[in-house]
Amino acid sequence: MAIEFKDYYAILGVKKDASPDEIKKSYRRLARQHHPDLHPEKQKAQAGEKFKELNEAYEVLSDPEKKSKYDRIGPGWDAEQAPPPRREVRPGGPDAESFAGFSDFFESLFGGARGPGPQAGRSFRAGPRQGQDIEAELPLSLEDAFQGGEKKLSIAAPALCPACGGSGRQGRGFCPGCGGVGEVSRGRSITAHLPAHVRDGMRLRLRGQGAPAPGGGQPGDLFVRVRLLPHPLFKVSGADLETAVTVAPWDAALGGEIMVPSLEGPIRIKIPAGTRAGRRLRIAGKGLRKEDGSRGDLYAATRLDIPERTDARMAKLYEQMREAAR
User: Is the pLDDT of residue 180 over 80?
Assistant: First the structure.
């Protein structure tokens, strides 16, 4: 009979060359997601099976010796291993035995005495831990990005469960307030200071504004990703801006002046004689701010506009222009 091979890397959603930290983070995320107490009654059994599978995968991949043997041998890698010691079954029916491993998991995850992996079975005293880092997105108008300064944003951030203080436990069971996770989601208002050279995709770090840590540990950090909103007038390329301007045929041919929008108000510029459609006229120093304090440029992309209505006199002039151009 063929031995069923479980791909523990696929179960945890990581690559084979994933680092121990990547394996741990993926395991924590998936374990929270599939914990049976966080699912409706009709889904508990399915979630419990998935949870056990995750626990088994992490127990192997978090132990360097087991992981090496698993990678080297493949199916049947654990055939020679001694059977695991039988867990003590506490009173409470069949669920007491099947969910004993879950309390072990949460004791490891949230500061208890035991957990899966190479440290299983070893007792320790949990000290203060670092809170988790969290990420949020900050949509910004181009005007707000140009002005910089302080910007308020509202985020849904994890907070310590007030019922259990972040331990995830109440008595011998899971905390009903957070389902054993130790955290609840709360809305928070954060003030972020924008640098003068803020750009789309820039990642700002707000120290100590992340998730709190139980036991008096240091809070995590909040990482804010800036997302510039589309602008009706300007295209952004690094620190440079581009806007479209409409030029009359006679100004394009003979030269003239037009008004160009900028982030600081309209600017009057000269149109050189012989300007063709699509020409980009550079207005130095009217773009976004750079990190060194200088500024990018503003480009006015010209497009020609023919009047919709043409009277007899204008038609005659156009005709003369056509004859002269032959």
Answer: no
Q: How is residue 7 written in tokens? A: 């791909």
Q: Report, at the CATH architecture level, how domain 134-228 is classified.
A: Sandwich (2.60)
Cβ neighbours around 107 below 10 Å, total: 17
Residue spans of the domains in the chain: they are: 8-110, 134-228, 235-325
- Specify the CATH superfamily of domain 235-325: Urease metallochaperone UreE, N-terminal domain (2.60.260.20)
Tell me which architecture the domain covering 8-110 has in CATH. Answer: Orthogonal Bundle (1.10)
Arithmetic mean of pLDDT, 33-60:
78
Backbone angles phi, psi at 25, to 5 degrees: -65, -40
CB atoms inside a 10 Å sphere around CB 50:
18
3-state secondary structure of 79: coil
**pLDDT at 325 > cutoff 60:** yes
Which residues, including other chains, have CB under 8 Å from residue 145's CB and lie 6 or more apart?
Answer: 194, 198, 199, 226, 228, 288
Global pTM? 0.54
What is the share, in percent, of the chain residues with pLDDT greater than 70?
80
Alpha-carbon 83 to chain mean position? 42
